[in-house]
Amino acid sequence: MSMCEKILADASNQKVSPGDIVKAKVDFLMLHEITGPLAVDAFHRMGFKKVWNNERIAVIFDHDIPASNVKTAELALKMRKFVKEQGIKHFYDVGRGGIAHQVLPEKGLAVPGMILVGADSHTCTAGALGVFAVGVGSTEAAAVLGTGMLWFRVPETIRILYHGSLKPGVFPKDLILHTIGVLGEDGAVYKAIEFSGETIKEMSIDGRMTITNMAVEMGAKTGLIEPDEKIMQYVSKRAKIKPKIIKPDSNANYEDTIEFEVEDLEPMVAAPYRVDNVHSVSEVEDIEIDQVFIGSCTNGRLEDLEIAAKILKGKKIYPHVRLIVIPASIEIYTEALKRGFLQVFLEAGGVVGVPSCGPCMGMSHGVLAAGETCLSTTNRNFLSRMGHKNSKVYLASPATAAASAITGHITDPRRFLT
Amino acid sequence: MKIIRGRVIKYPDSVDTDAIIPARYLNITDSRELAKHVFEDYDPKFRLKVKTHPIIVAGGNFGCGSSREHAVIALKTAGVKAIVAESYARIFFRNSINLGLPALQVSGVSSKVSDGDEISIDLENWKLKNHNSGITLEIKPLPSIIMGILESGGLENYLKERKGKW
Questions:
Q1: Are A139 and B23 inside 8 Å of each other by CB?
Q2: Are A63 and A20 in contact (CB under 8 A)?
Q3: Domains of chain B
Q4: What DSSP assignment string belongs to A100-169?
Q5: Burial class for A251, CB neighbours closer than 10 Å (0-12, 13-18, 19+)
Q6: Chain B residues closer than 8 Å to A132 by CB
Q7: Nearest CA in chain B to A72
Q8: Residue A100: HSE in the Cβ half-sphere, 13 Å Cα cutoff
Q9: Number of residue pairs across A and B with CB atoms under 8 Å?
Q10: Of B18, B24, B164, the CB nearest to A47
């Protein structure tokens, strides 16, 4: 069996095969302040009075924080009241947590072998820790709040095997963009992806989370990585829930195995308005940019800020470019501050924001005007995603983003990494 | 609900939920207010057209991207009676069922149904009939739990009817 088949078999207490529909116990539920309020309303309308387990729910504010307008302030207030009324144990308000998908592993709430559901599509990020982590809508989140259970279709699993080491200047973001370019944005619809191979083994946890974060951009239900020593070390210091080490069987039945040799991979960029519209950086180097955003659940982690700071140290960003850097969590923010990265960004002419989703989905600060272009380390470049429908978002690694902030156009980061 | 008949608005592959409802409206909780902004940037004519063309026919991966349930709320409140696509992004599909909006999978629908065609969707016999061309297509039957949720009018009623048990 594949990892997700094993986890679903365990949670539903029955034999499973791809295509089966099972009712399974959920180990943990995440809500944020935008999708959460719809879930709270539905929870009440369903007639529930008490959540199924107030120790297995996290409410994490990240989409528009601190609230930029009265309407989102009211949504946040509704969630605060719900947290209090239900005694929800894991609550991360403004300044306490950061982006949910980063906070869950950091706080030891996403641990290997569990079923994690979150009212957000990038919940799949936690798959890097061997979690069966899936996004759901608000009404389903309400059902989980009330029952602690949900139905799942056991997905077919596609195995992606990466061979070799990434060249200097090429990063996990480039690898996942390349993968999405090859498979297409519908390349894994309703399937699970297991990412493996020596490239993944060598990769840091930060990098692995970049990979699993974007599984959903190929339509995947989730992306998983087998937990290894690195993961267990990370988890053992943090876990608030007992992990279960679940690995795929060596004779697991994969729907497909797709192999990549990564040695020759170049820095990659996804051009508007599709995530699978992927080009090597050299093909898009003449694109001029107005804004650079380094952050998000895809690339707002310490390693991302470290490489960006390395490139920007002692440099000034291009006069007409604005650089927004947002660490994914308070923990990362604090560490980046200690290590001097944030000072580098400020001295270069950038600005450092509150740990949150930032401009990624065009909901709060950092939105684009008509005709503007942003080079962003985020995960989506859809029409209207970051602001006006006539704005454009290109997706790239933090290194490419930092290099481009200096030159004012999309730039190969290796120019600054020799 | 067993037979849904109407004219079609046609969309291509991979229509995302940012296109259906941009994030700048996600702090709206009133469904009628949300419906005013449905497809606002992607297809501004949609709101008018849906009044006479209440069925969406699309290519693959319909509803990809963000998990926002607001997308289904906006479509449903604007007057969409059913969606037929080659395939769906998983969360959108679940949201649609959970809010009682039939989301049906029909292989070949994007080449066999054109914008403006009148179609009937028969959920008893799992057939889609195109009244303009006379062609009949097979609808992939929905598993019983999903059909149960749809017949209850969505997950909210489904759980209410079962007193909070699955």
A1: no
A2: no
A3: 3-140 (3.20.19.10)
A4: HHHHHHHTT-S-TT-EEEESSGGGGGGGGGT-EEEE--HHHHHHHHHHSEEEEEPPPEEEEEEES-PPTT
A5: exposed
A6: none
A7: B27
A8: 31
A9: 140
A10: B164
Mind listing the pLDDT tens digit for each residue in B129-156? Answer: 999 999 999 999 999 999 999 999 999 9
As for the ipTM of the complex, it is: 0.95
Give the global pTM.
Answer: 0.96
* Bridge partners of residue A392, in order along the sequence: A373
Domains annotated on chain A, with CATH: 3-242+252-259 (3.30.499.10), 269-413 (3.30.499.10)
DSSP 8-state class, residue B13: S
Contacting residues of B for A42, CB less than 8 Å apart:
155-156
- The token pair that represents A136 in the structure block: 């759901």
List the 135-154 stretch of A: residues with Cβ below 8 A of B: 135-140, 142-143, 146-147, 149, 151, 153
Tell me the Ramachandran region of residue B70: left when phi exceeds 0, alpha when psi lies from -120 to 50, beta otherwise.
alpha
Helix H or strand E encompassing A337: helix A330-338
The alpha carbon of residue A360 is apart from the nearest alpha carbon of chain B, in Å, by 10
Q: CB distance from A42 to chain B under 8 Å?
A: yes
Residue A25 vs residues A22, A53, A143, A148, A182: alpha-carbon distances, Å: 10, 12, 12, 6, 35
Cβ of B98 within 8 Å of Cβ of A34? The answer is: no
> Is A186 in Cβ contact with B61 (below 8 Å)?
yes
Q: Which of B67, B94, B159 sits opposite A35 (nearest CB)?
A: B67
A209 touches chain B (CB under 8 A): no
Residue B69: list chain A partners with CB under 8 A: 35, 38, 137-139
C-beta atoms of B95 and A137 within 8 A: yes
Pairing of strands B136-138, B127-130: antiparallel
Q: Would you write out chain A's pLDDT as a tens digit for each of its 418 residues?
A: 999 999 999 999 999 999 999 999 999 999 999 999 999 999 999 999 999 999 999 999 999 999 999 999 999 999 999 999 999 999 999 999 999 999 999 999 999 999 999 999 999 999 999 999 999 999 999 999 999 999 999 999 999 999 999 999 999 999 999 999 999 999 999 999 999 999 999 999 999 999 999 999 999 999 999 999 999 999 999 999 999 999 999 999 999 999 999 999 999 999 999 999 999 999 999 999 999 999 999 999 999 999 999 999 999 999 999 999 999 999 999 999 999 999 999 999 999 999 999 999 999 899 999 999 999 999 999 999 999 999 999 999 999 999 999 999 999 999 999 8
Lookup result for tokens 């947002």: A326
Element at B138 (helix H, strand E): strand B136-138
Is the Cβ pair A121, B72 closer than 8 Å? no
Task: Find the CB nearest B41 among A37, A361, A384.
Answer: A384
Q: Cα dihedral angle (A140, B92, B105, B46), rounded to 10 degrees?
A: 130
- A139 and B18: CB-CB below 8 Å? no
Question: Cis bond leading into A273, ω under 30°?
Answer: yes
